[in-house]
UniProtKB/TrEMBL annotation, chain A:
<feature type="domain" description="Protein CotJB">
    <location>
        <begin position="12"/>
        <end position="87"/>
    </location>
</feature>
<dbReference type="InterPro" id="IPR016571">
    <property type="entry name" value="Spore_coat_assembly_CotJB"/>
</dbReference>
<protein>
    <submittedName>
        <fullName>Spore coat protein CotJB</fullName>
    </submittedName>
</protein>
<keyword id="KW-0946">Virion</keyword>
<keyword id="KW-0167">Capsid protein</keyword>
<dbReference type="Pfam" id="PF12652">
    <property type="entry name" value="CotJB"/>
</dbReference>
<dbReference type="InterPro" id="IPR024207">
    <property type="entry name" value="CotJB_dom"/>
</dbReference>
TrEMBL record, chain B:
<dbReference type="InterPro" id="IPR009078">
    <property type="entry name" value="Ferritin-like_SF"/>
</dbReference>
<feature type="binding site">
    <location>
        <position position="135"/>
    </location>
    <ligand>
        <name>Mn(2+)</name>
    </ligand>
</feature>
<feature type="binding site">
    <location>
        <position position="64"/>
    </location>
    <ligand>
        <name>Mn(2+)</name>
    </ligand>
</feature>
<protein>
    <submittedName>
        <fullName>Spore coat protein CotJC</fullName>
    </submittedName>
</protein>
<feature type="binding site">
    <location>
        <position position="67"/>
    </location>
    <ligand>
        <name>Mn(2+)</name>
    </ligand>
</feature>
<comment type="similarity">
    <text>Belongs to the manganese catalase family.</text>
</comment>
<keyword id="KW-0167">Capsid protein</keyword>
Automatic annotation (TrEMBL), chain C:
<dbReference type="InterPro" id="IPR020256">
    <property type="entry name" value="Spore_coat_CotJA"/>
</dbReference>
<protein>
    <recommendedName>
        <fullName>Spore coat protein CotJA</fullName>
    </recommendedName>
</protein>
<dbReference type="Pfam" id="PF11007">
    <property type="entry name" value="CotJA"/>
</dbReference>
Length: 88, 189, 72
């Protein structure tokens, strides 16, 4: 059985989320060596909220992003359903 | 613990069916300066480094696993539909004999990954300098791989990975600066 | 050739079997920063992702070496 192809919107949502996640990651490494930069902390908080909103939207459309109860699963177990990141 | 996230850090698009490139990319999967070596090096060193820089080693070490998955994606996409004959033409016959279409942790020359690629000296300055060197060596490796392909889409992902090495190297150098100050700073909670 | 590149020459012997190839190495921008200053200019999120860094001052462009291996 082949997994059906993901809709076009999947890539758009994913790309937006990747951008938001990237800013948070980049600021994390920066804050690891600049822990007292208040401006960066404020920016991190702002982007962390945006990232959360985008993750929720993505998960509502395409299923959980994170395992072990770190994402809502809804009424169906779709975690083990593909496609996986290296397949799309 | 770690939590898996069902997405890549950066989009990986492979536009040319060129399994030969998989043989070169595997260097960054299971090679001395590859992403596996990087992740394991940093995440192991963090147990004995001063508290101030544990967060950095943890975060960069974790990011390296995301990079490992990107490299795996490239290799997977380049080899999953290749016939044994195509793999042979790509110089991957020896790989195919032992591993079929599976990925494996070895370098471009076929040497299996070994812990001797990485070091933990228990000396914070020595360990961080090893990490800085590892990042610059990985950057150079990405440049070499970029020079060996004309697939602009795979080049795009490789350029992202190359730039990450540059940022990581700077953060490790900042960590050295932080440790230089360590003794003079008062711990206040 | 962008300003990151440092060209250099090596001795060319009259007995060298191959024509000389121009040589150069790259010095990425991280080499000119000891400790990143606060409040450096940033890329917008999509641009940051595309370039692999949030900060233009850390961005190092890289283009594949042209066929023949020479950068001009």
């Amino acid at each position: 059985m082949t997994t059906p192809q993901v809709p076009k919107e999947y890539y758009r949502y994913l790309h937006e989320l990747q951008a938001m996640d990237f800013v948070c990651l980049e600021l994390s490494l920066y804050l690891d060596t600049h822990p007292d930069d208040q401006q960066a902390i404020a920016q991190f908080n702002q982007f962390q909220r945006r990232k959360q909103v985008l993750s929720q939207q993505f998960e509502a459309n395409f299923g959980p992003l994170k395992e072990y109860g770190n994402s809502p699963i809804g009424h169906r177990w779709t975690w083990s359903v593909g496609p996986w990141p290296w397949q799309v | 613990m770690w939590i898996y996230e069902k997405k890549l850090q950066y989009p990986v698009r492979v536009s040319k069916c060129d399994p030969r490139l998989a043989k070169f990319l595997i260097e960054q999967y299971g090679g001395a300066d590859g992403e596996l070596a990087a992740a394991l090096r940093y995440l192991n060193q963090r147990y004995t480094i001063p508290d101030k820089v544990i967060g950095l080693l943890t975060d960069i070490g974790t990011e390296e696993f995301a990079h490992l998955e990107m490299i795996a994606t490239m290799v997977y996409k380049l080899t999953k539909d290749a016939t044994p004959e195509q793999l042979k033409q790509a110089g991957l016959a020896e790989h195919y004999v032992d591993h079929g279409s599976a990925l494996f942790y070895h370098n471009a020359a076929g040497n299996p990954w070994t812990a001797t690629y990485i070091q933990a000296k228990g000396d914070p300055i020595a360990d961080l300098y090893e990490d800085i060197a590892a990042e610059e060596k990985a950057r150079a490796t990405y440049e070499h791989i970029i020079n060996l392909t004309d697939d602009v889409d795979i080049q795009d992902s490789l350029k992202f990975l190359r730039e990450r090495e540059i940022v990581h190297a700077l953060r490790f150098r900042e960590a050295v600066e932080m440790l230089k100050e360590y003794q003079t700073e008062k711990k206040a909670f | 050739m962008d300003s990151q590149w440092r060209p250099f020459d090596t001795y060319h012997s009259p007995f060298d079997p191959c024509p000389p190839k121009p040589k150069s190495y790259i010095v990425p921008p991280n080499q000119f920063i000891v400790f990143q200053a606060k409040g450096m200019k940033q890329f917008a999120p999509q641009e940051a992702l595309k370039r692999g860094t949030l900060w233009p001052d850390l961005y190092s462009p890289y283009e594949a070496m042209p066929q023949g291996g020479a950068r001009s």
